[in-house]
Amino acid sequence: MSNNQISSNQNNIYIVICHGRSGSTLLRLLLNTHSQIYSPGEPWLFFWYYQSLHQDDYASLAYSNFLGDDKLAAYKDFIDSIIQRKLVGQNKIAFVEKTPRNNEILDFIDSIDNRFKYIYLIRDLRSIACSELYRGNSFKSVCKNRLMGNYFKSIKRIKNTQRKIDAFIARLDKNRLFKLKYKDLVSFPEKVLRFLFDWMNVEYEDVTTYTNKQEYFGDTNTMQHDRPHILSIDKWNKRLLWSEKKYFDWYMGEMNREVLSINSSYPVEPHGKGQGK
């Protein structure tokens, strides 16, 4: 990629819209394995700037006063520059930003540049709530979460987040949105990714045996993973207590049914036999 492309190729930035614990890390790892896509782990590119505009500390106030009415344009130039230079350094052509907390500031992100495109990762909200409950993945941590009522706090937070997502999606130009269902991603990864890569204007590559490469201040840890599997799709049904399922259905069952009925951006196949393990 030449330096000229840094300033001319600014519509190659993709924002993942998703809940936490929705499978977004799997999606990121698959995309980052592609030779033309760079998707770092939760860079928080937008959220830290949004917070700086709404804090009362001296540094934030000085920054806002210095830039004045130009602060949003200045940040847009900064985002363009840092992302395009990262792409040049990685020898990639598309950048995917996956930070779940972006859900809180989607309108702000879109005000920075209305050429950003969005990948909406859709998952059964019961799976997300169950994953929150089992955060820590030990019997002790699950008991603690149940004792502290964290499950009920989680579904309240999930409901509020989904409202923000729904409102933003309703206003967004449909040409800038790709809707992808988690169950399809793990059941038919090749087919789903073919459509996604075509929408992103990158060549198809088989990335279903992906590499997890994490960098911590220069340290690199690389792990090889098997292809996606379907075992996690309905895990919530076995893990949640009867009372937890009933409460979920009472509190946000209708919202979840609406989420599950969203049409994806590709032809749908019947579920049953997945291609994954």
Q: What is the terminal separation in angstroms?
A: 38 Å
SS-derived structural category: alpha/beta
| Major sheet size, sense and barrel closure | 5 strands, parallel
Proportion in β-strands: 5-15%
- Give the count of helical stretches: 13
CATH class of the domain at 4-124 and 172-232 reads Alpha Beta
* Order of strands in the sheet with most strands: 2-3-1-4-5
Mean pLDDT over all positions: 84
* Assigned CATH architecture of the domain at 4-124 and 172-232: 3-Layer(aba) Sandwich
Can you say what the CATH homologous superfamily of the domain at 4-124 and 172-232 is?
A: P-loop containing nucleotide triphosphate hydrolases
Q: What is the CATH topology of the domain at 4-124 and 172-232?
A: Rossmann fold
Instruction: Write down the Rg.
Output: 20 Å
Encode the helix/strand succession as letters: HEHEHHHEHEHHHEHHEEHH
Residue stretches low in confidence (pLDDT < 50, at least 5 long) are: 1-9, 216-220, 272-277
- Number-wise, the strands total 7
Helix content: 40-55%
Shape summary: globular
Note the main attributes of this structure:
277 residues, alpha/beta, Rossmann fold, 5-stranded parallel sheet, 13 helices, 51% helix, disordered N terminus, disordered C terminus
Protein model, in words:
A 5-stranded parallel sheet has the order 2-3-1-4-5, with helices on both faces. Strands 6-7 form a two-stranded antiparallel ribbon. The longest helix has 22 residues, at 150-171. The model is unreliable at 1-9, 216-220 and 272-277 (pLDDT under 50). It contains 13 helices and 7 strands. It has helices at residues 4-8, 24-33, 47-53, 58-67, 71-90, 106-112, 125-133, 139-147, 150-171, 182-187, 189-199, 235-239, 242-260; strands at residues 13-17, 37-38, 94-97, 117-122, 177-181, 211-216, 219-224. It has a domain at 4-124 and 172-232: 3-Layer(aba) Sandwich (Rossmann fold). The protein is globular and about 55 Å long. It is an alpha/beta fold and 277 residues long. Helix 7 packs antiparallel against helix 9 (150-171).
